[in-house]
Design a protein that fits this description.
The protein folds into three domains: 2-88 and 179-192, D-Maltodextrin-Binding Protein, domain 2; 90-177, D-Maltodextrin-Binding Protein, domain 2, CATH 3.40.190.10; 210-276, 2-Layer Sandwich (Alpha-Beta Plaits). It is 27% helix and 34% strand. It has eight helices and 15 strands. The structure holds adenosine-5'-triphosphate, 1-O-pyrophosphono-5-O-phosphono-alpha-D-ribofuranose and magnesium ion. It is an enzyme of class 2 (transferase). Residues 49-202 form the ATP phosphoribosyltransferase catalytic domain.
């Protein structure tokens, strides 16, 4: 049985459960459940703190897990990213009181507050920037400068609302762009069953990222139309009862749906229909 660690709380917990549900796995009904066997799918879920998940995976206690890329790097454990999952996106950034800093080199000799000391110290060491110290905080990092325990902070930024409310501003390049990732132990053979899990999760990602587009187009315009909707490999072109026309079906990126429909309409395609994909194996 593949042992899968899933966030029990926090920003990643609900979207991770949702994705696993869409991939056909059982998910817990009660947030106090800590272990959930799913024998039909030959897996067992362990609900753990997202910060601990890479540590368990690195130690081999569980086979794979879902956590944030930032948490994975911060843990410095023997786990590696296997598949990015497209949710839980955030940016990890420097911030300081408005007007004081503009570049990471200014962090030299300053006190840094963060919940991600592993990530921050590696980043600074790679750039030969030596801070006065790193203050590890559990949360509410934005308050650290006002309370005088640090000069700058390094923290997760999603909308930027928390920073703004604390009178801070971002400076320097982003330290990291993060999202939820599937992790496995590094240097090991892939655990049995990981291929099935990854294929199922990729299926969900595809279903979220693409739509199916159907349309009719005069035969003389098929090549032009297919150039607009090349699909993933090759679009399906089928004959219509009216021999002058063909029907085309192709996958299209969800974000491009309207632009593609307009372009097809402009060249003379009609009856353009878009449908959602519920599941996929490519
Ligand atoms: N708005 C956000 N705040 C915090 N973490 C976020 C946010 N959006 C995405 N994330 C990601 O979620 C992970 C952190 O989850 P974690 O559960 O440890 O913290 P949290 O969601 O702030 O929960 P809590 O602080 O209540 O324990 C990181 O990978 C982080 O990049
Ligand atoms: O850019 P924003 O959309 O404002 O989101 C980012 C903030 O959200 C998280 O804090 P959380 O609410 O989890 O509190 P915490 O600091 O106690 O973890 C994170 O640590 C930032 O502080
Ligand atoms: Mg938090």
């Amino acid at each position: 049985m593949l042992r899968i660690a899933v966030p029990n709380k926090g920003s990643l917990s609900e979207p991770a459960a949702e994705m696993l549900r869409e991939a056909g796995y059982r998910q817990r009904r009660d947030s106090r459940e800590l272990v959930l066997p799913d024998p039909d799918n030959d897996v067992e879920f362990f609900f753990l703190r997202p910060r601990d998940i890479a540590v368990y995976v690195g130690a081999g206690t569980v086979d794979v897990g879902i956590t944030g890329r930032d948490l994975l790097l911060d843990s410095q454990s023997a786990a590696v990213e296997h598949l990015p999952l497209g949710f839980g996106g955030s940016t990890f950034r420097w911030a300081a009181p408005v007007g004081l800093m503009s570049d990471v080199s200014h962090v030299a000799g300053k006190r840094v507050a963060t919940s991600y000391p592993g990530l921050v110290s590696t980043y600074l060491a790679e750039r030969d920037v030596v801070p006065a110290g790193i203050v590890r905080l559990d949360g509410a990092v934005e308050t650290a400068t006002r309370l005088g325990v640090a000069d700058v902070i390094a923290d997760v930024v999603e909308t930027g609302t928390t920073l703004k409310a604390a009178g801070l501003e971002i400076f320097g390049e982003p330290i990291l762009r993060s999202e939820a990732v599937l992790v496995r132990r590094s240097g090991e053979e892939e655990p049995v069953g990981l291929d099935v899990l990854a294929r199922r999760l990729k299926g969900v990602l595809t279903a979220r990222e693409y739509v199916l587009m159907d349309y009719d187009v005069p035969l003389s315009l098929v090549e032009q139309a297919v150039a607009i909707t090349p699909g993933l490999e090759s679009p399906t072109v089928s004959p219509l009862h009216n021999r002058e026309w063909a029907a085309v079906r192709a996958m299209v990126r969800r974000s491009e749906t309207n632009r593609v429909m307009d372009a097809l309409y402009d060249i003379g395609a009609r009856a353009i229909l878009v449908t959602t994909i519920h599941a996929s194996r490519l």
